[in-house]
Design goal:
By secondary structure, this protein is an alpha/beta fold. The chain contains 17 helices and 15 strands.
């Protein structure tokens, strides 16, 4: 499907390719990602997406990740999805050993589909579980049951996937330590290679945000949410899941040494977003980034199809990051990773003495146990991760 790896300078990072599938069976009340529930547009979307693949500037990039997200890609017709994957392999210089991820949701995927995905070249599955608690699933508006969630993981394993990631949500109203630990234990018992634990957020414009404003439920206090986060970090580390980013944990098998096994299961694609590696985004609402420029597509399937049918790329806007914006993003994205900010690299890029300029800030945060710093690295502690936004602001 993809090409053999070409020779490439070691200092040239491989790019990432993202494809946004904007279809869902049902829109979850907390979700603010762009999606629609009308499947009749799938064939026209496929044709538009193929047109975009052919039209977009390739910039001589070599890709070692392909990530198909949404929406819910698993609601896409199997034949359409295979066509999308095959066309991506024809249009882009994708390495033969690329990490190729597909997002799926329980209740929208079968054993047969998972086998088809594996045969189509998908080698990593990301499953949107969110919770193994029926009451939580109901609150979140999920269409699947607890049993369907567990089945999806087991089916993916039987289909031959050896790199499976699960998404969980914490901070749900009424969620106790015991209930959260039960979710974590159930997830760990299924032995996925990767776990993402996301804090429930109430994004403006979503039904859940409107319910919050109408006082339809009582949200958890911030302190309780912080406690649930700390529980997750401690529990997962104890069970050989190593945190490498604020919300992400990769399994390190017992007996392995160093970070090699962790890096094997970390999301290679998502790490590009946090390390300023070029990526190309295709589909409605998708973003691209290269040469300090960010571009994004229209958040409308209809507008997306209309523009490409007229022979135009579906660009909604673009932004060239100025020096201040680059600094802000380097600091923020560095701190959200457990490896932290590479001091030498940021000093060379911006021409500042990082440790000297922020000596006071660093000393204060170290005293509070929120940061750990050396000549080489400046990184948040697990507790510091709880205050990422506030701490990042101190360096700006």
């Amino acid at each position: 499907m993809f090409q053999d790896p070409p020779s490439s300078p070691l200092d040239t990072p491989f790019a990432g390719l993202y494809i946004h599938i904007p279809f869902c069976f049902k829109k979850c009340p907390y979700c603010d990602f762009y999606s629609i529930t009308d499947p009749s547009l799938q064939p026209r979307f496929r044709d538009a997406l193929i047109s975009e693949m052919n039209m977009v500037d390739k910039n001589d990039l070599v890709y070692d990740t392909l990530y198909i997200g949404g929406g819910t890609p698993s609601v896409l017709d199997d034949a359409i999805l295979k066509k999308v994957i095959d066309t991506a392999g024809q249009c882009f210089n994708i390495l033969s050993d690329a990490e190729t991820t597909l997002e799926v949701n329980p209740g929208t995927v079968t054993m047969r589909q998972l086998k088809n995905y594996r045969q189509a070249g998908i080698n990593r599955i990301s499953i949107g579980i969110q919770s193994f608690n029926p009451e939580n699933l109901d609150f979140l508006g999920r269409i699947h049951s607890v049993q369907e969630a567990e089945n999806a993981v087991k089916w993916a394993q039987k289909a031959g996937f050896e790199n499976i990631g699960l998404d969980l949500i914490y901070g749900i109203p009424g969620q106790t330590d015991k209930l959260w630990l039960k979710d974590l234990q159930t997830a760990v018992d299924l032995r996925p290679q990767h776990l993402s634990c996301y804090m429930l957020s109430y994004e403006p414009g979503t039904p859940l945000h409107m319910d919050l404003q109408n006082r339809a439920f009582t949200p958890l206090p911030e302190q309780r949410i912080c406690e649930l986060y700390e529980i997750a970090v401690t529990f997962l580390n104890t069970h050989h899941y190593v945190q490498y980013e604020t919300s992400n944990f990769a399994r390190k098998d017992a007996g392995s040494r160093g970070t090699q096994s962790v890096l094997t299961y970390a999301s290679r694609h998502n790490m590009k977003y946090w390390n300023f590696v070029p990526y190309t985004g295709l589909g409605p609402s998708a973003h691209s980034f290269m040469d300090q420029k960010r571009l994004w597509n229209h958040s409308s399937v209809e507008k997306y199809i209309e523009e490409l049918s007229a022979g135009r790329l579906p660009r909604a806007g673009e932004e060239l990051l100025n020096r201040e914006q680059q600094w802000m993003e380097n600091v923020y994205l560095g701190l959200r990773q457990t490896k932290g900010i590479a001091v030498d690299a940021i000093e060379k890029k911006f021409g500042i003495n990082f440790n000297a300029r922020y000596a006071g800030v660093i000393a204060d945060l170290e005293e509070k146990g929120l940061i750990k710093s050396s000549k080489e690295r400046c990184a948040l502690t697990s507790r510091g991760m709880l205050y990422l936004d506030a701490i990042a602001g101190m360096f700006i």
